[in-house]
Design brief:
single chain
């Protein structure tokens, strides 16, 4: 069961990130919101599988990674559930729209960035705890830990207002390019994680 759930999580992570990239390229905003609500679920399943395998010497790091994964999931689900419900179905005042509408930047946009910052820290600690036994696993470990470099940008850059400008379209296609780059980076993590779990006996 542990192996099956972990493999399913890796598969969900890979597919949702790929679909997110497709939605970005097709400018299908609602679809990207839906996909983003399934990504945290898949990631938590995948991270739990790696957490389960860690030894006692790396348990603290693995536990931190799982806690941060939970924080990431809560923030992201709140942000995108708001986009697909309240923002989509209610008539909002201009002030409320500035706060709630992801497309206009504002509070929920910043919470989204904070969520992905927590995900970056989560991958770092999960990668730190992972025991790599072969070359693909070593690549997975490196990619997970290196993904942690996204944390400073997600955490500190919203304080500068730069990402709000990108959300409101004042910085060209920079935001879309950054998201596509992230997708290209994260898809191999899901693929390597699936391979890792599929090679396990239990």
């Amino acid at each position: 069961m542990n192996r099956t759930v972990s493999m399913a999580g890796a598969a969900i992570t890979t597919v949702t990130v790929f679909l997110f990239a497709v939605c970005i390229l097709c400018d299908f905003i609602f679809g990207s919101y839906i996909v983003c609500m399934f990504l945290p679920i898949g990631y938590m399943m995948m991270a739990a599988g790696l957490h389960h395998e860690c030894g006692e010497k790396t348990k603290v790091s693995a536990n931190i990674g799982m806690i941060l994964a939970g924080v990431y999931a809560v923030l992201i689900l709140l942000v995108y559930f708001a986009q697909t419900t309240t923002v989509r179905t209610e008539i909002l005042t201009d002030q409320a729209s500035r706060i709630l509408n992801y497309q206009r930047g504002g509070l929920l946009f910043n919470y989204d960035l904070l969520g992905y910052g927590m995900m970056a820290l989560s991958t770092f600690f999960i990668g730190l705890a992972m025991k790599a036994e072969n070359k693909p696993d070593r690549w997975l470990k490196r990619l997970l830990m290196t993904h942690g470099i996204f944390f400073p940008g997600c955490f500190f850059m919203p304080m500068t207002g730069m990402f709000t400008s990108m959300a409101e379209g004042r910085s060209g296609n920079g935001g879309y390019i950054a998201l596509l780059f992230w997708c290209l980076y994260f898809i191999p993590i899901g693929v390597l994680a699936w391979r890792h779990f599929s090679s396990r006996e239990t």
